[in-house]
Amino acid sequence: MQLQQLQYFVAVAETRHFTRAAERVHVSQPSLSQQIRALEKELGAELFSRARGNIALTDAGETLLPLARRILADADTARYEVQELAQLRRGRVRLGATPSLCTGLLPEVLRTFHDLHPGVQLLIEESGSHDLVRELARGALDLALVVLPLPAPSPALTTVELLHEDLVVVSSAAAPAPPRPVRVADLRDQPLVMFRHGYDLRELTVAACRAEGFEPSFTVEGGELDAVLGFVRAGLGLAVVPSMVAGRAGRDLRVTALARPGLRRTIGLAHRSDVAPPRAARELMRVLLRSQTASASTRE
User: Fold this and answer.
1) What pLDDT digit, counting tens, does each position of 132-161 carry?
2) Residue 20 exposed, middle or buried by CB count within 10 Å (0-12, 13-18, 19+)
3) Of 57, 131, 163, 250, which is the most exposed, with the fewest CB atoms less than 10 Å away?
4) Between residues 83 and 41, the one the model is more confident about
5) Other Cβ atoms within 10 Å of 205 Cβ, number
6) Cβ proximity of 97 and 132 under 8 Å
7) 157-172 and 239-242 as β-strands: parallel, antiparallel, unpaired?
8) What is the biggest distance separating any 2 CA atoms in the chain, rounded to whole angstroms?
9) Which of 32-67 are b and which e, b meaning 16 or more Cβ less than 10 Å from the residue's Cβ?
10) How do residues 261-280 score in pLDDT, each as one tens digit?
């Protein structure tokens, strides 16, 4: 079994089309088909059902697909790890983070890292914790900043607590001010702008409202972070967001604290347990941990 064959197999599985798959991997369609047949012969099972105009994975193909993706990702990581020079003059880091952390935490951290290692390529995947955990597990990311605890316990991942962050309420500066501080119970009669499903902030806010005995009322739901803040600016409702984001929201948004005990979230740094992160990723881990240690010392 060759890595090239697995690459061709994944391309066909994702495009469900032999010609488009061949274009993606830059080979002729007959060559790709020949390698797929060779792979099927070696495995002793057909990987695709080839009905006219419809390419579908067989049971064997469905079983192989996640394994093939992981093998290719690990091979890719190994190639970059070997290529890195001792002084980290080149390499790459594939980092996943939630949208609020991309806005609030990462810009300064990545600037510090880039100043130290300008030759290292930074690839950022912005998504919710559920998706990032899945991408980590299949080897598509080296590191991820996720909300703890994880959506489901995963012995395949190692996590380290990075920071604790308060959540606050944001509202339009042109709208009537909410009570100060805002209790979660006060949100019962307030229209809320809500993030899309899969956002950790959505789940945390909804869970807090239900703990107070009510279902929150949404005027708009389904947005990403920037969209949610824009809807709040337009006066469509309140939103619960991380204080790190609210501090950069601008004068047209009012920031109000939540009454004690308030709402907090824990941010962790995660990586796979079975594969050591590449050297450049380990260096970024050190920069992240050092930056939060410095921030904690400043607050004290």
Assistant:
1) 998 998 889 999 999 998 877 677 899 999
2) middle
3) 250
4) 41
5) 23
6) yes
7) antiparallel
8) 70
9) bbebbeebbeebeebbbeeeeeebebeeebeebbee
10) 899 999 999 999 988 888 88
Token look-up 């290292």 returns 120
**CA dihedral of residues 124, 225, 209, 165 (deg, nearest 10):** 50
- Tokens linked to 43: 């495995």
- Rounded Cα gap, residues 59 and 77, in angstroms: 28
Contact status, residue 157 vs residue 133, Cβ threshold 8 Å? yes
pLDDT band at 298 (very low <50, low <70, confident <90, very high): very low
Task: Identify the residue whose tokens are 């599985």.
Answer: 13
If we measure between CA atoms, which residue out of 188, 234, 238, 194 comes closest to residue 214? Answer: 188
Query: Both tokens of residue 170?
Result: 């944001």
Whole-model pTM over 0.85: no
